[in-house]
Amino acid sequence: MKICVLPGDGIGPEIMAQAVRVLGALDLKLEMEEALLGGCAVDATGNPYPEAAQKLARAADAVLLGAVGGPKWDALPREQRPERGLLGIRKDLNLFANLRPAILYPELANASSLKPEVVAGLDILIVRELTGDIYFGQPRGIETREVEGTLQRVGWNTMIYAEYEIRRILKVAFEAAQKRGKKLCSVDKMNVLECTQLWRDIADEMAKDYPDVELSHMLVDNAAMQLVRAPKQFDVMVTGNMFGDILSDEASMLTGSIGMLPSASLDADNKGLYEPSHGSAPDIAGKNLANPLATILSAAMMLRYTFNQEEAAQRVENAVKKVLAQGYRTGDIHEPGTNKVGTREMGDAVLAAL
Amino acid sequence: MKICVLPGDGIGPEIMAQAVRVLGALDLKLEMEEALLGGCAVDATGNPYPEAAQKLARAADAVLLGAVGGPKWDALPREQRPERGLLGIRKDLNLFANLRPAILYPELANASSLKPEVVAGLDILIVRELTGDIYFGQPRGIETREVEGTLQRVGWNTMIYAEYEIRRILKVAFEAAQKRGKKLCSVDKMNVLECTQLWRDIADEMAKDYPDVELSHMLVDNAAMQLVRAPKQFDVMVTGNMFGDILSDEASMLTGSIGMLPSASLDADNKGLYEPSHGSAPDIAGKNLANPLATILSAAMMLRYTFNQEEAAQRVENAVKKVLAQGYRTGDIHEPGTNKVGTREMGDAVLAAL
Ligand SMILES: CC(C)[C@H](C(=O)O)[C@@H](O)C(=O)O
Ligand SMILES: CC(C)[C@H](C(=O)O)[C@@H](O)C(=O)O
C-alpha cells in the first residue's frame, strides 16, 4: 500500500501532517513518500507538477493531497500556475471520477447559512467527471482576428465529450447510487448544448442496465436553484467537469462547514487521489488554525476506495465523529460553548479517539 | 411606444393579462399588439419564433414576454422546441444585456430557505451576457467518429467571446454599478478557460475608465459558494451567458420568491425584452393560481429602461409593494395570516393600489 503524499501550499503541510499521523496510528502496512505539487513545486523547480512528483504518483497506489495555490503565484504565466499541477496530475493519472460528498454533521448544523429544517441530515454525493469537458477540450486559446471589420482579441474553448468518457463516469454514478439511496440525478443543459444532449441520451440508454436506480434529469440552472431550495431531494448527482465544479462547490457550501468535506478522484482501477474539498487558505497558513478533518476524512476515503480497508476507514470516520461529539472545534466551525483548538490539537484529539 | 406582447405558454397568458391591465391603467400612449412565441407558436405554425412574431418584435420598441415551454414539446426535435424561440428572439434583436435583479422583499423574508440574517435586505443585480458564449458558438454538434479505435458518438460546443462582445456587456455592468452601490464583481474561470481569461483582462483594462466603481474578480465555483454563504457581499455581478444562466437562477432562489423577480434583456439602444425570471409552470396553468407580480414588475422595468418613464415605473413598483404590505399573496408566496388570492385578484389589487 504505497501512498504518494503531496502536502502542497498554504495550509496544506499542516493539515497533511495530521492526516499522516492518523494513518500512522492504524497498524496498516502503509508506505508513504512525499513530493512537491503546486506553488511549492513551481518555486523549487519551475514546474507545478515536476518529474519527481510524476514518478512517485505513478508508482503509488494512491495519492494524498493537501491543497495547492495562493496569491503568490497568481501573476505567473498560465502554464506555471499551481492549479496546472492539479489539472496535470488528474489527467496524467486518468482520474476521471471525482466523488464529492456534501454531508452535514448534526453537531455543525448551525454553521450552515440555510435554515436547519432545509439542511438537517443532508447527505448528497456529487459525482463529477474530471478529465474531459471544456477543461481539456481542444482547440482553445486567445488570438487576434478580424471581427466585424476590426482586429480584435477572441478567446475560445471547446466543450467536448466522447461516448466512452460519458459511459464510464455514468457507470460510477449508477453504481454509487445502487450502494446509497438508489436515486441518480444527471445534470446537463441539453436544451442548449449538443454536448450535453449526448450526455442525456447515453444516461437514458444506460438506465436500462440499472433497473434498481431511479434516474432523473435536471437542467444545470434548475439544479443550482434546487440545491438552494430543497437540497435533500438529492441522493447522487452526476455531471460533467465544468458544471460539476460549480455545483459541487455550491453543494459543499450548503453545509457551511467545507472544512469537513473530503473528496476522491479515481481512475478505472480505483487508484485515487484524495484531497479536502477546501482550498489552501493562505491567509491562515502556518498559524496552526486550519481544520485538518477534511484531510483526515480524505485519508479514510482512500482506505475505503483504493485499499478496500472498510474497517479502518470507519475507524477513522468514527474517531472524527467522536471528536465533534466531544466538542473539539477548529476556528472555522467554532461556536460558543465548544472547545476551540488548533490544527495539531485537533489531530491529537482524533488520535486519542482512535 | 409600441409594445409587442408575447404571452407564450403555460401560465404565460394569465400573468400577461394582468400586466396588460396594469399598463392600460397608466395613462400612457402605449400601443400593444400580440403574437405567438414558444410552444403555442410551434403548435400553430411549426416554428417557435414565427414570422409574425419576428415582424412585430422588430417593429416594436419593447417586447413583453410571459413564459415559454412545457413537457408537451420536450420530445420535439431541437429546432422546434419552445426555448429555440426564446434564443431566436434574443439573437435576432441583439439583446445582449440581461439584467436580473435578485431582491428580497421584507414581507417575504420567510420564503427564503436561507436564514433571515443571511438574506435580509438582499439586493443584487446580475448582468448576464445573452447573445454570445457557448450558447451560440460554432462549431457544435453530435457526430460519430473514430475515438480510441472504435466508432463513437462525440458531442461538442464552442465557448467563444470576441473583444467587442465583452466590452459592451462590461460597459452595461460598470454603468449599472455606478448607479447603485458602486461595486462590480466579474465572474470567470480564468484559471482554466482562456475565453474567460480574455474576459478578465478586458475588465481590468476597462476599470480605469470607471474609477468610482470597485471592480473585483471571482472564480465561478467560488461565486456559486459565496452566493450561498454570504450573498449580501455582492452589489452588481457580471458574467458570460453560461455562467450567468446558472448564477442568476441560484441568486433568484436565495430569495425563495422567484415569482416576484422580473428581468430585462436589452440591446445597445435600450430596446428590450422584458419577462419574469420564473418559468411557464405548466402544472398550474389555466387555474388562476400563478403569481403575476414578476410580469407586472417586468412591465415596470420596461417603462424605466426602454421608455424612460421613471415615474410610471415607480408607480407600478410602489403598487406592488403596497399589495404585499396589504397582505395579498398568491399560493407561491402565501403563509398563514396573509390573504391568499388568485392571479386575477392579485391584478385587481395592484390596479386598486395604483
Ligand atoms: C483549482 C481548479 C483548477 C480546480 C478545478 O476547477 O477543477 C478546483 O476548483 C477544483 O474544483 O478542484
Ligand atoms: C430556456 C433556456 C434556453 C434559457 C437559457 O438557458 O438562457 C433559460 O434558462 C433562461 O435563463 O432564460
TrEMBL record, chains A, B:
<feature type="binding site">
    <location>
        <position position="245"/>
    </location>
    <ligand>
        <name>Mg(2+)</name>
    </ligand>
</feature>
<dbReference type="GO" id="GO:0003862">
    <property type="term" value="F:3-isopropylmalate dehydrogenase activity"/>
</dbReference>
<comment type="function">
    <text>Catalyzes the oxidation of 3-carboxy-2-hydroxy-4-methylpentanoate (3-isopropylmalate) to 3-carboxy-4-methyl-2-oxopentanoate. The product decarboxylates to 4-methyl-2 oxopentanoate.</text>
</comment>
<keyword id="KW-0028">Amino-acid biosynthesis</keyword>
<dbReference type="GO" id="GO:0009098">
    <property type="term" value="P:L-leucine biosynthetic process"/>
</dbReference>
<keyword id="KW-0520">NAD</keyword>
<feature type="site" description="Important for catalysis">
    <location>
        <position position="135"/>
    </location>
</feature>
<feature type="binding site">
    <location>
        <position position="249"/>
    </location>
    <ligand>
        <name>Mg(2+)</name>
    </ligand>
</feature>
<comment type="subunit">
    <text>Homodimer.</text>
</comment>
<feature type="binding site">
    <location>
        <begin position="70"/>
        <end position="83"/>
    </location>
    <ligand>
        <name>NAD(+)</name>
    </ligand>
</feature>
<dbReference type="GO" id="GO:0051287">
    <property type="term" value="F:NAD binding"/>
</dbReference>
<feature type="domain" description="Isopropylmalate dehydrogenase-like">
    <location>
        <begin position="2"/>
        <end position="350"/>
    </location>
</feature>
<comment type="similarity">
    <text>Belongs to the isocitrate and isopropylmalate dehydrogenases family. LeuB type 1 subfamily.</text>
</comment>
<keyword id="KW-0963">Cytoplasm</keyword>
<feature type="binding site">
    <location>
        <position position="90"/>
    </location>
    <ligand>
        <name>substrate</name>
    </ligand>
</feature>
<dbReference type="InterPro" id="IPR024084">
    <property type="entry name" value="IsoPropMal-DH-like_dom"/>
</dbReference>
<feature type="binding site">
    <location>
        <begin position="279"/>
        <end position="291"/>
    </location>
    <ligand>
        <name>NAD(+)</name>
    </ligand>
</feature>
<feature type="site" description="Important for catalysis">
    <location>
        <position position="189"/>
    </location>
</feature>
<feature type="binding site">
    <location>
        <position position="221"/>
    </location>
    <ligand>
        <name>substrate</name>
    </ligand>
</feature>
<keyword id="KW-0560">Oxidoreductase</keyword>
<dbReference type="InterPro" id="IPR004429">
    <property type="entry name" value="Isopropylmalate_DH"/>
</dbReference>
<comment type="pathway">
    <text>Amino-acid biosynthesis; L-leucine biosynthesis; L-leucine from 3-methyl-2-oxobutanoate: step 3/4.</text>
</comment>
<protein>
    <recommendedName>
        <fullName>3-isopropylmalate dehydrogenase</fullName>
        <ecNumber>1.1.1.85</ecNumber>
    </recommendedName>
</protein>
<dbReference type="Pfam" id="PF00180">
    <property type="entry name" value="Iso_dh"/>
</dbReference>
<keyword id="KW-0100">Branched-chain amino acid biosynthesis</keyword>
<dbReference type="InterPro" id="IPR019818">
    <property type="entry name" value="IsoCit/isopropylmalate_DH_CS"/>
</dbReference>
<keyword id="KW-0479">Metal-binding</keyword>
<keyword id="KW-0460">Magnesium</keyword>
<feature type="binding site">
    <location>
        <position position="128"/>
    </location>
    <ligand>
        <name>substrate</name>
    </ligand>
</feature>
<feature type="binding site">
    <location>
        <position position="100"/>
    </location>
    <ligand>
        <name>substrate</name>
    </ligand>
</feature>
<keyword id="KW-0464">Manganese</keyword>
<dbReference type="GO" id="GO:0000287">
    <property type="term" value="F:magnesium ion binding"/>
</dbReference>
<keyword id="KW-0432">Leucine biosynthesis</keyword>
<dbReference type="GO" id="GO:0005829">
    <property type="term" value="C:cytosol"/>
</dbReference>
<feature type="binding site">
    <location>
        <position position="221"/>
    </location>
    <ligand>
        <name>Mg(2+)</name>
    </ligand>
</feature>
